[in-house]
Amino acid sequence: MTESSKAPGLPGLAGKRVLVTGGSRGIGRATVRCLAASGASVGVAYHRAEAEARRAVEEARSLAPDGRHWCAGADLADPAECRTLFERADAEFGGLDGFVGNAGIWNVDARPIESLEADEWRRMIETNLTSIYAGTREAALRLRANGRIVLVSSTASQRGEAEHSHYAASKGAINAFCKSIATELGPRSINVNAVAPGWVDTDMSAPALQGDAGRAALTLIPLGRVATAEDIAGPICFLLSDAARHITGEILNVNGGSVLCG
Questions:
Q1: Could you tell me if 134 and 103 are in contact, meaning their C-beta atoms sit under 8 angstroms apart?
Q2: For residue 15, what pLDDT is reported?
Q3: Which of 236, 254, 189 lies closest to 13, judged by CA?
Q4: Does residue 195 contact residue 236 with C-beta atoms inside 8 Å?
Q5: How far apart are CA 90 and CA 95, in angstroms?
Q6: Least C-beta-crowded within 10 Å: which of 82, 106, 117, 125?
Q7: What pLDDT, on the 0 to 100 scale, is given for residue 113?
Q8: Which residue positions in the chain have pLDDT lower than 50?
Q9: Which domains does the chain have, with CATH numbers?
């Protein structure tokens, strides 16, 4: 699987300062490119993939040489490390206009409830949900009027996912969290939305899209193809832009029609 270098820009993002978690690969990295192409300055947060994060920063610099682009590592499930990351953003940016909560994991191996161990459940919830809480909290402390928060959910949050209940639970909670925080922060003119992707051609999902499993997945997508990372990055950047200034508390489904719940 190769990631496209195409990065169409969006209006209303020039000069914005945005922190993207999980920005070293997949959807996060495509979002970094889209933001940079739109003239934004981007902070790229990663957990372990430092080399990939540095390449994402190089891509951003090639697209927006005048921007302030940087990367930093953090375990976002640890609120203290998350706070340190945002303090880095304070130092680099001198303010924050947007936050993209994208960091997350998914395990290709099936985990029926009878064999789903407590430590697996805990790791999934901490990585996919606690990190969203911690990042959103830090963002809310910093964002001013016209600030934007975009969280990355999943179609699994809406249709469930047999033998991946811990993943579906973590993403379903993100939807509820998004709507709650949108209501809280709306009076401060801060918009909070989520994007719920279906199958996306990334490193994380590639093993599940091979062979018969991949062909079966395609039959469930009316548009007849798996999304690229750019297909998800565009809607994320739209929600960060001025074009979405009157949208908040929404779950934007980007799934090729596989889950028609809008």
A1: no
A2: 96
A3: 236
A4: yes
A5: 6
A6: 117
A7: 85
A8: 1-5
A9: 17-254 (3.40.50.720)
Instruction: Give 228's DSSP letter.
Output: P
Q: Computed from CA positions of residues 216, 29, 111, 160, in that sequence, does the dihedral angle turn out positive or negative?
A: negative
Report the DSSP beta bridge partners of residue 254.
Answer: 197
Residue 67, token pair as written in the block: 């921007």
Q: How far apart are CA 212 and CA 156, in angstroms?
A: 20
Out of 46, 133, 167, 238, pick the active-site residue. 167
- 6, burial (CB in 10 Å: exposed 0-12, middle 13-18, buried 19+): exposed
User: Of 197, 210, 209, 204, whose CA–CA distance to 159 is shortest?
Assistant: 197
Interacting residues of 72 by C-beta distance below 8 A, sequence separation 6+: 43, 44, 45, 46, 85, 88
Residues counted in the chain? 262
DSSP class of 1: -
Which residue bears the tokens 């459940």? Answer: 121
Residues 248-258 pLDDT 10s: 999 999 999 98
Question: Does 167 qualify as catalytic in the annotation?
Answer: yes
Single-letter code of the amino acid located at 160: G
- pLDDT attached to residue 53: 98
